[in-house]
Specification:
single chain; alpha/beta; 7-stranded mixed β-sheet; 4-stranded mixed β-sheet; 7 helices; 11 strands; about 35% helix; globular
């Protein structure tokens, strides 16, 4: 098969995949005060809608306020603790944000929600896409066993995909690649070189060693090297 035919087949495959991906999603938070980048729903709940046209988002917002989300809208709801973390990560004053919790508290899902909002604000501000993230952890095996399974969970509706042998997580909404997350471990000699890559934000997954699970954590020198000034709407570092 010629290279031209292969390229056409790959292009068609990408177009078909884009048609089956999420066209619009709503991130619903439970907060005492609604942030400027979200819309109030009811009581303490607010939402950020991503994707679609402005009229589509208005109709979806009205439906959410009635408790009747429209068909095709992926709704991601977060509890108060996760909501506070997302709000702090998106628009808080601190350059570094730590999230603590027990296994199963959906910390990774909360961070992914913050990535989605930040990437949408990144686009809204006219910055180039996709928004690039560094996501190191102790070893890439840890990513494969935890992070990679989380992004492929059904509740995301297919907005996340994995490429490059699970070293790249891609966020696609309404056919637009909003964010690229570079996934890698820090346990080998080349880790410090990878921490020098250009990125808008840093997300350290499982920063501390986990004795019971065998996780080695992320070395302090690697973390310090990656915390450097970057040019984006909200440079921020997360860790837990």
């Amino acid at each position: 098969m010629s290279r031209l035919v292969v390229e056409r087949v790959e292009k068609l495959a990408e177009q078909v995949a884009a048609m089956t991906r999420v066209q619009m999603c709503a991130i619903v938070l439970d907060l005492a005060a609604c942030p400027a980048w979200a819309e109030a729903l009811d009581g303490t709940r607010c939402a950020r809608l991503i994707g679609g046209q402005k009229t589509d988002r208005r109709r979806a917002l009205a439906a959410l306020r009635k408790g009747q989300p429209p068909e095709g809208l992926v709704v991601l709801e977060y509890r108060p603790g996760a909501s506070r973390f997302i709000a702090e990560a998106v628009s808080g004053p601190a350059p570094e944000v730590a999230c603590w919790g027990a296994r199963g508290d959906r910390k990774t899902s909360a961070a992914l929600g913050a990535v989605i909002i930040l990437a949408d604000l990144h686009r809204e501000g006219g910055a180039p896409l996709p928004m690039r993230w560094m996501v190191p952890t102790g070893s890439h095996v840890e990513h494969e066993l935890k992070f990679c399974r989380t992004v492929l969970a059904l509740h995301w509706g297919g907005m996340w995909s994995l490429r490059e042998d699970k070293h790249l997580a891609v966020l696609t909404i309404d056919g637009v690649e909003l964010a690229h997350l570079d996934l890698f471990g820090t346990s080998d000699p080349g880790a410090l070189d990878r921490m020098r890559m250009e990125a808008a934000c840093l997300w350290v997954e499982e920063a501390a060693p986990a004795a019971l699970e065998g996780g080695g954590g992320v070395p302090e020198d690697a973390y310090s090297m990656s915390c450097r000034p970057v040019a984006c709407r909200r440079p921020v570092a997360w860790r837990w």
